[in-house]
Amino acid sequence: MNENFIQINGISKHFGNVKAVDDVSFSIKEGEFFSLLGPSGCGKTTLLRLLAGFEYPTNGNLLIDGSDITALPPDKRPTNMVFQNYAIFPHINVEQNIKFGLRKLGLTDDEIKKRVDDVLALVKLEGYEERFSGQLSGGQRQRVALARALVRQPKVLLLDEPLGALDKKLRDEMQLELRTLQKEIGITFVFVTHDQQEAISMSDRVAVMSEGKIQQLSAPNELYKNPENIFVSDFIGETNFLKASTKSKDGDQINVAIEDLGDFKVKNNLNIPENSSDVVCSVRPESMMISRDKSDWDICLEAKINQTSYLGEMTRFYVEVSGINKVITVSSQHFDNQSFDNNTCFISISLEDISLLQKK
Amino acid sequence: MFQAWRNLYSKSDNVKAYSLLSPALFLIILVMLIPMALMLSFSSFTQVSMMEIDFTPTVQRYIDFFEKSLLVSLLIKSVKISFIVTLITLLTAYPVCYYIAFYVKKNKMLWLVLLTLPFWTSYLLRVFSWKIILGTKGVFNSTLLGAGIISEPLTFLMYSEEAVIITLTHAWAAFALLPLYVSLEKIDFSYIEAARDLGLSKFEVFWKVTFPLSLPGVIGAILIIFIPTVGDYVTPALIGGTEGRMLSNMIQAYFGKINNIPLGAASATIMLTTVILITAIVSYTTKRLTQRLS
């Protein structure tokens, strides 16, 4: 397995004064399901288009499987793309769409037929050969786009938010299917999405992007459990931020003063310096508990509940702790909605689950 | 009464459609269907003398038309001139529209307005101005004479088929720009990117994707130019001379100087039929051609 199958070396792309991609370097492994995740305008699509050859970088170079593709036009690259709107040619039918990219590969008629049949079976579209784009549902169009790209057997498949146009249920189905398909055929997938749940559930690794830069590149569970900065912590999942300042270090741990709560000792994975006031503690909803009675957790505070809003798996509480209003989000299973007397409660936090992060 | 009408109007889509169409429908019946019917019936009569017409139905006028080699050759010439005009217009307008649709990022509307600006003046004025440009003492000839490139004025520029073709091409170009532009503008750029991604060169992408997708505009432009130019009468009359005369000028003569209204009506009917046939063939073959291309 080639660890540096796709190499992105110091890539920048400027549009006028806008730095869409700003000096980005990383590698993608062979056979990996890799996601570029970020809010709109973060540069993820531009990076994908640079890989496809629709844009050329202002600086830096791109290598796929050891060869420099920086200056190659799209038709000369070992990549194929699934477009956000699928771009199924409307004037030809499904079969002709799939065959479209095969004509330049110099295959015999038998080989073409075999490839088309195989890919149609792979995406479960047998019997749809004669249909036109207008006669297909969103999900079917997506499969045609996938088949059309895969039939060329590219080294890398680029996917530009391919599930964005589908409804929730179909999207969940397609997520699983795409993941299974990718493992089956073993082609490297580079997947662009703004949906953190999608990226986390499908990918081997995720690069979180913001303002043209990579904020963090790691496995999905690492992104959630050990975010490296406030942006990632906020973007991936729900979290509660508590203002704090650091004091003295104590081995792997550090003493922090959390605003309105007091002094505590927490783990210091990111090696944040002593006596810094620009830090926050991030606490995931499942690491907090709201209860009627006092708990024996590391932090336990009395609070007054002003308002609650139920969000399904999570519940948002608008509380007052020592006269200061705070909003906290807690896993719904961690409290009993009926049991609060006079709206008073105890908020408990486990120190183990606090991530200490530095402001930029 | 009013209530009954309101009920009928809100319940039936047909009533709604026809009442909304009625002003246009009325106009079309008045200025199109009735004159058409009159023309068809006149083509079956016989002109006996200056003021006298025999109303016995006959197809003799149509036979007359095809027995007069002048009329047949004028018909062929009309079709040929329009065909050339249509072709030149398409070949010049298509790249312009392609450029505006895909390469102009800002102020596309301004470009279109500037391109169509000359066409805001009257058709007749534009025809006359070509007379000034192409004439023996015109801009073109006097420049060439003054520069010493030629010693005698070029005479083929005026009162010739070429003059008619030049003038008509210019006169109708704007009408080709709009349908072509609209059809190209509508093409999602991701189709072009997808085709490039699937291994086609820029040239191949044009023939396999861009051109087929712009075909509705191409057919539209062909019809919009071909139909009116076949029957154009002003330009050949003013610019064409005897060389550039077209069938429409002859038809006008039949209704006027020559005073053979039935033969004129028959000629007009034949011309109309020819245009309809050619239009149908063009639309059909272009569609088939695209399917073959992709």
Summarize the structure.
By secondary structure, chain A is an alpha+beta fold.
Question: Could you please describe the fold and organization of this structure?
Answer:
The complex is a heterodimer of chains A (360) and B (294). Chain A is an alpha+beta fold and 360 residues long. Chain A is 22% helix and 37% strand. Chain A has two domains: 6-233, 3-Layer(aba) Sandwich (Rossmann fold), CATH 3.40.50; 238-358, OB fold (Dihydrolipoamide Acetyltransferase, E2P) (Beta Barrel), CATH 2.40.50. Chain A is built from eight helices and 20 strands. In chain A, the strands form four sheets. A six-stranded mixed beta sheet of chain A has the order 6-7-8-3-9-10, sandwiched between helices. In chain A, strands 13-12-11-14-20 form a five-stranded antiparallel beta sheet, with no helix packed on it. Chain A has a five-stranded antiparallel beta sheet with strand order 15-19-16-17-18, with no helix packed on it. In chain A, a hairpin with a 2-residue loop joins strand 4 (59-64) and strand 5. In chain A, helix 3 (109-122) packs across helix 4 (138-150). Chain A is elongated. The mean pLDDT of chain A is 89. Helices cover 76% and strands 1% of the residues of chain B. Chain B has one domain: MetI-like fold (Orthogonal Bundle). Chain B has a two-stranded antiparallel sheet with strand order 1-2. Chain B is globular and about 70 Å long. Chain B is built from 13 helices and two strands. Chain B is mostly helical and 294 residues long. In chain B, helix 8 (161-185) crosses helix 11. The A-B interface holds A 52-54, 73-75, 79-81, 83-85, 87, 89-92, 96, 100-101, 103-105, 148-149, 152 and B 188, 190-191, 193-201, 208-209, 212-213, 290, 294.
Fold topology:
The complex is a heterodimer of chains A (360) and B (294).
Chain A: E1 6-15, E2 18-28, E3 33-37, H1 44-52, E4 59-64, E5 67-68, E6 79-82, H2 94-99, H3 109-122, H4 138-150, E7 156-160, H5 168-185, E8 188-193, H6 196-202, E9 205-210, E10 213-218, H7 220-225, H8 230-235, E11 240-250, E12 253-258, E13 262-267, E14 279-283, E15 288-291, E16 299-310, E17 314-321, E18 324-331, E19 344-349, E20 354-358
Parallel strand pairs in A: 3-8, 3-9, 6-7, 7-8
Antiparallel strand pairs in A: 1-2, 1-4, 4-5, 9-10, 11-12, 11-14, 12-13, 14-20, 15-19, 16-17, 16-19, 17-18
Helix pairs in contact in A: 3-4
Chain B: H1 2-11, H2 13-42, E1 46-47, E2 53-54, H3 60-67, H4 69-102, H5 108-116, H6 123-134, H7 139-146, H8 161-185, H9 189-197, H10 202-230, H11 234-240, H12 247-255, H13 261-293
Antiparallel strand pairs in B: 1-2
